[in-house]
Amino acid sequence: MPDVWYHADTANVTVDLSMMDGVAQLTPLLVSNPNDSFDPGDPWFDSLDPSRQGLAFNLQYGFTMDPDTDMLPGNQQLWIHDITNSPNLGIYNYSATPKLWAPIFGTDGSTNATYWSGMMWMLAATAPPGTNDYSATFEVYVVDTTTGKEVLGSSSGPFVLNWTDVPDGRPQLTIAAAATNGLVLTWPASATNWTLVSTTNLTAADWTSVTNSSTVSNGQAAVYLENTAAHQFFTMLRNP
User: What 3-state class would DSSP assign to 27?
Assistant: First the structure.
């Protein structure tokens, strides 16, 4: 977890990453607890439950203020800025009590900078299950609340948090063009406990079952679709 210091003599911030234990691993629930599911009433249900998006996730990283830090002047605040991050990496303000799952740091159109009170703050990171590596580059800086502007020279400078990713064992789904405005989707016919679903809006995560009849040939199930939406997404969801 990044350890943040404010230095009153130089009016700047430093961040110490030396106590961090390795690289965080984004893991889907299908791998960590394959027989579990989230409560549909949980705010993270649509993102993390295997019956919905089933994203891989991790709660390892956050920010903490070093106990020996200097105190900020009364008219100053700490802010954290997500300078850049990998495509498909989502970051959320997570809390179990009260339950909270709010996109931050550019996720789902949110602002990429936010005020930080200095209290220990855990972040949730998400990504589609797979074998990719992800990273996000941050800085911590001081804002003068009188002017609303950054205190010049206060930034910690950029530092990077890294994640690895874990596949969730879903059957491989292949999509190919077929005829005019047509698609053929194929997956292993042995995956009888999985359903092909689609959505036109990943943010809303409104997945619906594809009801077109499938055929089986050479161990592969196939569905033909025509006149699909301009933007349509497909995945395989495990049956309850």
Answer: strand
Rounded CA separation 159/226 (Å): 47
Coil, helix or strand at residue 56: strand
Domain borders along the chain are 3-165, 174-238
Tokens matching residue 184: 């053929």
Largest CA distance in the chain: 72
Please measure the distance between the N-terminal and C-terminal CA atoms of the chain and give it in whole angstroms. Answer: 36
Rg of the Cα atoms in the chain: 22
Query: What tens digit of pLDDT does each residue of 128-170 get?
Result: 999 999 999 999 999 999 999 999 999 999 999 999 999 988 8
| 134, 100 contact by CB (below 8 A) | no
The 10s digit of each residue's pLDDT in 97-132 is 999 999 999 999 999 999 999 999 999 999 999 999
Fold held by 3-165: Immunoglobulin-like (2.60.40)
Measure the CA angle with vertex 238, ends 232 and 240; round to 5°: 120
DSSP output for 73-142: PTTEEEEEEEEEE-TT-EEEEEETTTTEEEEETTGGG--SEEEE-SS-EEEEEEE-SSS-EEEEEEEEEE
Q: How confident is the model at residue 205 (pLDDT cuts 50, 70, 90)?
A: low
